[in-house]
Fold this protein.
Amino acid sequence: MNKNYVIVALFIFLLLAGIVYYEVTRDKYKEVKSRWSEAVQLYTSETYGEKLRNYFTNTSKQFFEGNFSNILVFIRTILYYDYSNDIDRWRSQYPDNIIPVKESLFTYLFAPARCQEFALDYLALANAFHVQTRLVIPMGFDHMWNEVYINGTWTHVDPSLNVRVMKADGIWHSFTPSNDPFIGVDIPKMYVNRGPIDSNNPVFAFEIDRSVIDVTERYRA
């Protein structure tokens, strides 16, 4: 009898442990998904897109309309990659440390940014000018980029590459970006040495309809 009790108790313990493990691991990235889905929704809404379009002249609108590379050149020109504390102080003024896109793009002529600002600003501006774009975030390391729907395929685009850089000590990096808009485009394997990319450290794409797509296979070695 005692042996049977032990077997039953062990079975119940294993069952409960399995349930707990399933609940914990079922979607450990739920909060991350929720946070960035909300951001994508905000910055790709038609209302927000209209506000962004109104900042530009008709000539600029024609330059951007439907052209992912022209928008990419603009983002890389108006933002610089900031390793100093300026960007952290600026982020701290806003909820979730997310600088609103219109503030990032239009507060300064030449604005500080890191990958988060580059990716969100590109996402918002591209969708405002009818370039279907989504946000991409890896869970295994700190970075963000985009994917653009080109000729029926989601294509990797990293707006934070080929940009001017401010070092942590406030000194400009002696680097003049190339005018080639295709630097950092369609090179999904470029991150394999940045951090883990696997089933435990997936890469998610956040779409404008709140879908969160696992795109890990595209980026893993």
